[in-house]
Design a protein that fits this description.
Shape: globular
Strand content: 15-25%
Bound molecules: calcium ion
Distance between the termini: 39 Å
Helix content: 25-40%
Number of domains: 2
Largest sheet: 5 strands, parallel
Radius of gyration: 18 Å
CATH class of the largest domain: Alpha Beta
Order of helices and strands: EHEHEHEHEHEEEEHEHHEE
Number of helices: 8
CATH topology of the largest domain: Rossmann fold
CATH superfamily of the largest domain: Response regulator
């Protein structure tokens, strides 16, 4: 993995330069933006593989940039947040943030997270083996177009929520621990925040509505998806 184009949005010069130098030493190609408006301009001007976005920015904040970008792109987004700053995980994930990292972070930790996010996003592109439909009663999941309908209604999901669901569908009736899910769905080789999994399970259940019961909590262990394919 090298040469990915990163748009780095951070208003603190010191952090931006430090991150830039480290990322370049790791083979990434980095474009800097010091505020939200500059970020949106540069985003519209060129192609990027990933967005690293500080939450607290002058004028246009990170959330607004994220919302704006998500209107037209499913580019991976990693948010930077300050320690002590209340970061609302649910809000972030619902906006389509892929992951977040709390300052102060080590550049090495940042790169590990970035690689996990990039790995996941390159895996989730429709390949032949996942080009299939899953049907359970009125729940219809198209693995290749990543569309979900219930009773013919379109269900909106974030990219990560869909990845979690498609992983469960492909591995029906098997119990996974949070750690296994972070590893398999998020691509983390080690560590990570288990609450990230819980938050996405919660979002996915809400999206599944009347079918929420398919996603079963196995107390003390983790989660599993219980549904026969009824095609
Ligand atoms: Ca900031």
């Amino acid at each position: 993995m090298a040469g990915e184009r990163i748009l780095l949005v951070e208003d603190e010069d010191r952090i931006r330069q430090m991150v830039r130098e480290y990322l370049e030493s790791e083979g990434f190609s980095v474009t800097e933006a010091a505020d939200g408006a500059e970020a949106l301009d540069k985003f519209k001007d060129s192609e990027f593989d990933m967005l690293i976005l500080d939450v607290m920015l002058p004028a246009v904040d990170g959330w607004s940039v994220c919302r704006e970008v998500r209107r037209e792109s499913s580019i991976p987004i990693l948010m930077l947040t300050a320690r002590g700053e209340e970061y609302d995980r649910l809000f972030g994930f619902e906006l389509g943030v892929d992951d977040y990292i709390v300052k102060p972070f080590s550049p090495k930790e940042l790169v590990a997270r970035m690689k996990a996010v990039l790995r996941r996003s390159s895996n989730s592109g429709g390949n032949a083996s996942s080009a299939e439909m899953f049907k359970y009663k009125e729940l219809l999941v198209n693995m290749s177009s990543r569309k979900v309908t219930i009773d013919g209604r379109n269900i909106d999901m974030t990219p990560r929520e869909f990845d979690l669901m498609s992983f469960f569908i492909k591995n029906r009736d098997r119990v996974f621990t949070r750690e296994q899910l972070l590893n398999k769905v998020w691509g983390y080789e080690f560590g990570g925040d288990y609450r990230t999994v819980d938050t996405h399970v919660k979002m996915l259940r809400e999206s599944l509505g009347e079918y929420r019961g398919l996603l079963v909590t196995v107390w003390g262990v983790g989660y599993k998806f219980e549904a026969e394919d009824t095609k």
